[in-house]
Prior knowledge:
Blueprint: H1 2-39, E1 51-55, E2 58-63, E3 66-69, E4 72-74, E5 76-78, E6 84-86, H2 97-108
Antiparallel strand pairs: 1-2, 2-3, 3-4, 5-6
Amino acid sequence: MYATSATAALTRRAVIRTAFTAAVFAGTAAALAPVLRARRPRQTVTPAPLTEETYRGRHIAVDLGGVRIDGRPLHVMRRADGSYLSGINHFQSFGTRLELARAAVDELGTTQLASAAPQHG
């Protein structure tokens, strides 16, 4: 009778240990799932629209990467209200990046932008 209860105790202990291990694995998987899902590259169905135009003899290109005037980057900052401003005319905000680029061309006149974007820090 003593051997039978020892076998039953080991079996009960094994079942509890297995259930606890399964619960730990399930909890870890649930905690890591959003992290692993976020690391996957996002697929876009259509490419982002690219706006290009010539304004007052200057070539303006606006895309998700930024704004370029004659191939040189214009530093653009997004405001909390959704409007944009730049270093060229930083006291005025504009509704779109294209409006901002046109205003920068007006302000620059015949002057070229610097060939490298400004670095902060």
